[in-house]
Amino acid sequence: MYNKIWWLSVASVLVIATALTTYEENFDEGNDLDVPSERKGKILFPFISIVRFANTDCASANTMNGICLARRECNNLNGTITGTCAARRGRCCVVSRSCGSTTNVNNTYFTSPGYPAAFAGGQACNIIVNRCNNMICQLRIDFLDFVLAQPNGDGVCNVDSLTITGGNTVVPVLCGDNTGQTIFVDFNGNAAITITIAATLATTFGRRWNMRLTQLGCDCPGLAPNGCLQYYTGRTGTITSFNYGAAANSALSASLVTGTRQIANTNYGICIRMEAGFCGIQYSQTGGDPFSFTLTGDVEGADNTVLGTAVGSVNGVGCTTDFVVIPNPITTATNVPVGSDRFCGLGFIPVTSTLKPFVVYVVTNANEGAVGGTPPDIANRGFSLAYTQTAC
Ligand SMILES: *[C@@H]1O[C@H](CO)[C@@H](O)[C@H](O)[C@H]1NC(C)=O
Ligand SMILES: *[C@@H]1O[C@H](CO)[C@@H](O)[C@H](O)[C@H]1NC(C)=O
């Protein structure tokens, strides 16, 4: 009798031990991080290791986001282990991909070949992004570092270009400096989103990119409203046009005047989440830079009595080529309605809008040069607008 019970216990201990070993092997057969307490913990409490952990996102020490995986799974993805997660049972795995790749891993980093070294170009480079599961609605693309060639002097991205296709959001063709920009692209059902960068061969310039591709679930609180190419949250913030920057474009336009940084053919919406307790939104051009609102006209022919002032600002029917749309605005300083929702020219006077949702539309036409445009565009930079939500 006692004998039988003893043998049964021995047998069950053996069975359980075998099961544990097998499981453990599947998940973590190495200890790349060599955490002594972890090793000890496994011997003392082996049952801890059999708990399967969720493949959630994880943050790593170098601020890159990863996904929590077993070591072997990370190796299979050619990922880089940057730390532990799931109470040390998993590995925070950062996945980077470059030209000619496919990914369905959340938080994939899409980089130029040899990043962060300059990429000489000479080839088109693309990544195909598949949804990591069928509850994904949107791809968030963070331009962590993004330097492509400037557009030509007429604002056309014909040296380098970023093209994004396959999604449900129309993304304009972009180029130039876009570090810090974020865009949101709706998935079109199960179709993949393809990101393509065409880079003309050139050796003397610091072309590079590092874009984080975050897959957002349909119920994710960070999801942008459908169709908003950009989405801002927070009571205050700064929105800038693509390739907005301090230096002028060194390329000349077709008519041999100074070229523009403003990119042609960008037609998109920027949405701003209305925060709790706030009912209106005020916009002003950012201070300290006289070029922070230069959408149309001759920047070089204007001095500081025009740039950034009421003299330089244009609205209404005067804005037909490149402009931003702010619905039903009121001049902040005077509380007088502007009477028009289009703004362009070389200056922007602060306005407040109480129309919901908070959206700014951006329109640029096909030609940002001095030819064919009325008025001619010379050396335009685009815009940098600060917004502040106003309490109810
Ligand atoms: C992808 O990662 C981000 C941030 O790291 C997270 O907010 C998001 O929910 C993740 N998506 C999925 C499908 O887990
Ligand atoms: C990982 O790298 C190897 C060798 O370069 C390659 O053959 C394999 O396809 C890569 N796997 C993934 C998932 O990218």
UniProtKB/TrEMBL annotation:
The keyword Transit peptide is annotated on this UniProt entry: no
Pfam families: CUB, CUB_animal
InterPro entries: CUB_dom, CUB_metazoa, Sperma_CUB_dom_sf
Keywords: Disulfide bond, Signal
Signal peptide feature range: 1-19
SUPFAM superfamilies named in the record: Spermadhesin, CUB domain (SSF49854)
Name of the featured protein: CUB domain-containing protein
